[in-house]
């Protein structure tokens, strides 16, 4: 067996050992192992997911060899679940792989408790009726669920989880928390020993911009009745003030200060996203409130009290031109403040836990620390039951998509992907699945789509003939490249859900394989 | 079910290739013939057998193509196994191209994949000209740039500077980093080539040496100090090998010492590797998404079975899921996909003099050039054996070496650019020979 640290090196750099541990603990169930399902699992098995259970009731036939890499000639006539499972096991011997030869639809109907053993269920190529039933089962059992489907050059991915909370959302670009416009006493004190007018040129060009900006902001406020720059003229004047302190044109630290001056102008306090989380009713703690929300309650108290309107400091500073000594000392200063904030939040978390009758130490220091460090980036995702979306989608949104050029193909596919299921319920086959009845199928699918639109409250809306035609042409084909794309998307979302890092997608992702103008629909 | 199709291997693909549609490419001619032609006549080259390459070979083999070739100079490493699904632990040390080709052929019968275990520069231009479409699964800008220049080099223009479609060599390019990736379609002469939009790939920011030497602040500064400065000081003459674990360990320990001296936190062995080797994080799912998009576009270009991506797709799964299609525009003056740098020459100019002119030409500044015309090497600056074989051409007039044709395309490879930005590159020249002694009338008119 390979050293996991080396084998997983390239992904450990993304989600770290904690993320990896979460993957290795997870137990995944796959329903239907055509190419869409097989490819989804393949990406997870490679990454070292804990265990997989492949459920499929079909035997391998010739057509499967043309679109599924996990089966080959020797698999013909054998249970598909067994063959796919066997190949996946070859990819990573650290994964526990098993299969069940049974039709997922039957399993959903007859054995709902089967699903409660899993961390997450990946349901591929299911029709609407089964999706709705499975969604109810998984919600009741608190099992995460993701739907994926490939259909010709179209397809979708949809997460269905009641609530998913993320501490480590790891956004790409996020304004760092330097408190330049609101320095705490120790930072203020630290800047007092800095002389921007020093005559030593080496010292002058190695003052980090944090200190330059705190000092100049202080000076500016002193001359402006205590307020900070807000208008355009103010900001210009402020930048001029920085420029005036420059003693040579090659001083990178002053250039950086000018570039970072917007950090002084930013309004203090918390973002509206964070405010919404603090105001969520889930933050009104009860005895069974999840840890995340207990910490949110503590955070809310902190912000209202010790924080003075600010979240705990995250304690990191970006690299900037500076002498080593000043930079390292500054780093220590920020870390000390972050540690102090954390200790206050920790105390509040313990008190809340005590109050609701739980073990005050049931949430670890590490978790609370990470929560504090990421307090400004907390994310909460909620997904409505699939049945609700199917029966009563958000009408204004749907109507907007139907009339918006950018969305026309995506929403067309959305409606048609649902219409083909109604079609198959009526005619025992998907439109265009067999040659010969194409013209009939096209007009039947059109009628089905129109009546579906009517049921959704969009009377009078139509889809283009071209797209209806296209859907019949697909004839429910599961093309390998499309399946690999959809499976890739599904597996990426699964990783985000299981590691509880990064932000999973919201809404329904509609794949548009015609020109790649895929869209997320929030219905 | 008594449907004959259900027993056909191309059950699913046939729906797309045999049936007419409205949202398709202009050249689409559905039918069994199309499916058979894809299998028989279309030849695809996959450049790179890594994270994208493995996926691409599988995707293309299952998208109706049977003649595939793959080129890659690397050998399999343990850290590949989290995503390069065609490789097993026992394959470590083997050439990627060979193992990848073997594995796909084992599973998909009827597909033939020819592996090439070598550098992309080792192949003659002619090698690349054989393919219908070139698909790139690379992680280096230099390699992309090279293949792009090769493929664009085949493009010919008519007298009105309009590209000749039959000389167009389409490329499909993919790239990933962590949860993000891109896929693009390059139709040289029609859509922007890699060089037209080179600004999409900004050069990596390097730390100033004075920061490393005098004011280190981060763990990365300490690592780069050990790697770039201290190593040479201590190991005079012995060059650093990033694949040698002893070397890496030495750099790590030196970096750790320096970090301790300055009170800088965060130096770890893993970070040392990351910084020194410039490791790009990579995961299976993103590679799968991007490769699938590339394979699908390849199928569309080859068959016309749907519209093509126009022309750049980005995927970002970091915060939610964002996909975006951007239609970039061509740089009409692009040195690579444009009509080429026009040079008017005397018929008497020797190959040697021509090569000297390349050095002075303001748009080229190319030294040590090798010269190729229609796949034939007129002069090769390296390796020595080829140099010796082609040296005698230097004294012969270029006009004669080009079979006395009045105009033609010449490919030159050499080192170009100024100062420390010098790099090896390939350029296309459109040469025209002055009719004996008489200046071209157009030129005279413009003077
Ligand atoms: Zn170009």
From TrEMBL, chain A:
Pfam families: ThiF
Highest taxon of source: Eukaryota
Residues passing through the membrane, by range: none
Record's GO cellular component terms: cytoplasm; nucleus
GO biological process assignments: protein neddylation
Chief place where the protein resides: nucleus
Keywords associated with the record: Nucleotide-binding, Nucleus, Ubl conjugation pathway
Keyword Nucleotide-binding: yes
Pathway noted in the entry: Protein modification; protein neddylation
Subcellular location(s) per record: Nucleus
Signal sequence segment: none
Domain THIF-type NAD/FAD binding fold, first and last residues per copy: 8-501
CDD domains cross-referenced by the UniProt entry: APPBP1_RUB
GO molecular function, one term: NEDD8 activating enzyme activity
Function: Regulatory subunit of the dimeric E1 enzyme. E1 activates RUB1/NEDD8 by first adenylating its C-terminal glycine residue with ATP, thereafter linking this residue to the side chain of the catalytic cysteine, yielding a RUB1-ECR1 thioester and free AMP. E1 finally transfers RUB1 to the catalytic cysteine of RCE1.
PANTHER family: NEDD8-ACTIVATING ENZYME E1 REGULATORY SUBUNIT (PTHR10953:SF29), UBIQUITIN-ACTIVATING ENZYME E1 (PTHR10953)
Family from the record: Belongs to the ubiquitin-activating E1 family. ULA1 subfamily.
Name of the featured protein: NEDD8-activating enzyme E1 regulatory subunit
Provenance organism: Deinandra increscens subsp. villosa
From TrEMBL, chain B:
Catalytic activities: ATP + [NEDD8 protein] + [E1 NEDD8-activating enzyme]-L-cysteine = AMP + diphosphate + [E1 NEDD8-activating enzyme]-S-[NEDD8 protein]-yl-L-cysteine
EC number, as in UniProt: 6.2.1.64
InterPro entries, sorted: E2-binding, ThiF/MoeB/HesA, ThiF_NAD_FAD-bd, Ub_act_enz_dom_a_sf, Uba3_N, Ubiquitin-activating_enz, UBQ-activ_enz_E1_Cys_AS
Domain E2 binding, chain residue ranges per copy: 343-434
Keyword ATP-binding: yes
Pathway(s) of this molecule: Protein modification; protein neddylation
Gene Ontology molecular function: ATP binding; NEDD8 activating enzyme activity
SMART domains linked to this entry: E2_bind (SM01181)
Name under which the protein is recorded: NEDD8-activating enzyme E1 catalytic subunit
Organism field: Deinandra increscens subsp. villosa
């Amino acid at each position: 067996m390979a050293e996991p640290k080396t084998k997983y090196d390239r992904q450990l750099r993304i989600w770290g050992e904690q993320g990896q541990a979460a993957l290795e603990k997870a137990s995944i169930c796959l329903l239907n192992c055509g190419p869409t399902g097989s490819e989804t699992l393949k990406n997870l098995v490679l990454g070292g997911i804990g265990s997989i259970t492949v459920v499929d009731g079909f035997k391998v036939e010739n057509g499967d060899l043309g679109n599924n890499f996990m089966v080959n000639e020797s698999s013909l006539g054998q249970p598909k679940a067994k063959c796919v499972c066997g190949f996946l096991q070859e990819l990573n011997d650290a994964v526990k792989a098993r299969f069940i030869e049974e039709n997922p639809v039957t399993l959903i109907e007859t054995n709902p408790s089967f699903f409660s053993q899993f961390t997450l269920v990946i349901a591929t190529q299911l029709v609407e009726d089964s999706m709705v039933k499975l969604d109810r089962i998984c919600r009741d059992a608190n099992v995460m669920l993701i739907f994926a489907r490939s259909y010709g050059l179209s397809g979708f991915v949809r997460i269905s989880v009641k609530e998913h909370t993320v501490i480590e959302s790891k956004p790409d670009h996020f304004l760092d928390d330097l408190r330049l416009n609101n320095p705490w006493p120790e930072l203020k004190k630290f800047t007092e020993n800095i002389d921007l007018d020093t005559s030593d040129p080496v010292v002058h060009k190695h003052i980090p911009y944090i200190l330059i900006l705190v000092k100049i902001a202080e000076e500016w406020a002193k001359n402006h009745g205590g307020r900070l720059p807000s208008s355009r003229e103010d900001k210009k004047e402020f930048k001029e003030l920085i420029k005036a302190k420059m003693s040579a044109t090659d001083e990178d630290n002053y250039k950086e200060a000018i570039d970072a001056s917007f950090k002084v102008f930013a309004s203090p306090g918390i973002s509206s996203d964070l405010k919404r989380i603090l105001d969520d009713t889930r933050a009104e703690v009860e005895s069974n409130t999840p840890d995340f929300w207990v910490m949110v309650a503590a955070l809310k108290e902190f912000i209202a009290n010790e924080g003075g309107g600010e979240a705990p400091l995250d304690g990191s500073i970006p690299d900037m031109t500076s002498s080593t000594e000043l930079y390292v000392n500054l780093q220590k200063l920020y870390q000390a403040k972050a540690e102090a904030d954390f200790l206050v939040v920790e105390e509040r978390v313990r008190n809340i836990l005590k109050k609701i009758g739980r073990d005050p130490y049931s949430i670890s220091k590490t978790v609370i620390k990470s929560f504090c460090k990421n307090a400004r980036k907390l994310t909460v995702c909620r997904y409505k039951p699939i049945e609700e979306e199917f029966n009563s989608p958000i009408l204004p949104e749907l109507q907007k998509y139907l009339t918006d050029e950018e969305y026309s193909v995506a929403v067309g596919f959305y409606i048609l992907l649902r219409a083909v299921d109604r079609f198959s319920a009526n005619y025992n086959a998907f439109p265009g699945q067999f040659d010969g009845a194409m013209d009939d199928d096209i007009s039947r699918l059109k009628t089905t789509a129109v009546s579906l639109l009517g049921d959704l409250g969009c009377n009078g809306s139509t889809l283009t003939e071209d797209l209806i035609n296209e859907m019949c042409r697909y004839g429910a084909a599961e093309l390998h490249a499309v399946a690999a794309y959809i499976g890739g998307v599904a597996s990426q979302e699964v990783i985000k859900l299981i590691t509880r890092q990064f932000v999973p997608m919201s809404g329904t992702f509609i794949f548009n394989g015609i020109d790649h103008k895929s869209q997320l629909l929030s219905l | 079910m008594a449907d004959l199709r259900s027993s056909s291997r191309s059950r699913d693909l046939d729906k797309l290739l045999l049936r007419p549609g409205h949202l398709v490419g202009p050249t689409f001619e559905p039918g069994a013939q199309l499916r058979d032609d894809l299998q028989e006549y279309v030849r695809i080259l996959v450049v790179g057998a890594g994270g994208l390459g493995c996926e691409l070979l599988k995707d293309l083999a299952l998208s109706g193509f049977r003649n595939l070739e793959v080129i890659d100079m690397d050998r399999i490493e343990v850290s590949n196994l989290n995503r390069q699904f065609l490789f097993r632990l026992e394959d470590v040390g083997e050439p990627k191209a060979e193992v990848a080709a073997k594995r796909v052929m084992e599973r998909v019968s009827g597909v033939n994949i020819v592996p090439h275990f070598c550098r992309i520069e080792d192949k003659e231009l002619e090698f690349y000209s054989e393919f219908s479409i070139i698909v790139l699964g690379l992680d280096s800008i230099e390699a992309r740039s090279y293949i792009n220049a090769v493929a664009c080099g085949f493009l010919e223009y008519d007298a009105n500077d309009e590209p000749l479609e039959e000389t167009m060599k389409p490329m499909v390019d993919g790239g990933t980093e962590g949860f993000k990736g891109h896929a693009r379609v390059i139709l040289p002469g029609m859509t922007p080539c890699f060089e037209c939009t080179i600004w999409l790939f900004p050069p990596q920011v390097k730390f100033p040496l004075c920061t490393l030497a005098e004011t280190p602040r981060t763990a990365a500064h300490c690592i780069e100090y050990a790697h770039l400065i201290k190593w040479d000081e201590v190991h005079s003459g012995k060059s650093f090998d990033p694949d040698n674990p002893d070397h890496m360990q030495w750099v790590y320990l030196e970096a750790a010492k320096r970090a301790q001296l300055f009170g800088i936190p965060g130096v770890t062995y893993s970070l040392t590797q990351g910084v020194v080797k410039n490791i790009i994080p990579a995961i299976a799912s993103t590679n799968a998404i991007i490769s699938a998009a590339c394979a699908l576009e390849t199928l569309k270009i080859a068959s016309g079975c749907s519209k093509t991506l126009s022309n750049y797709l980005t995927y970002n799964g970091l915060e939610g899921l964002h996909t975006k299609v951007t239609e970039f525009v061509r740089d009409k003056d692009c040195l690579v996909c444009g009509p080429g740098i026009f040079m008017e020459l005397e018929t008497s100019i020797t190959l040697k003099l021509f090569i000297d002119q390349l050095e002075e030409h303001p748009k080229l500044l190319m030294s040590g050039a090798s010269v190729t015309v229609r796949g034939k090497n007129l002069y090769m600056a390296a390796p020595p054996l080829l140099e010796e074989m082609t040296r005698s051409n230097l004294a012969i007039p270029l006009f004669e070496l080009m079979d006395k044709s009045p105009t033609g395309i010449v490919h030159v490879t050499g080192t170009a650019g100024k100062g420390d930005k010098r790099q090896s590159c390939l350029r296309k020249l459109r040469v025209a020979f002055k009719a004996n002694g008489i200046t071209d009338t157009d030129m005279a008119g413009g003077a």
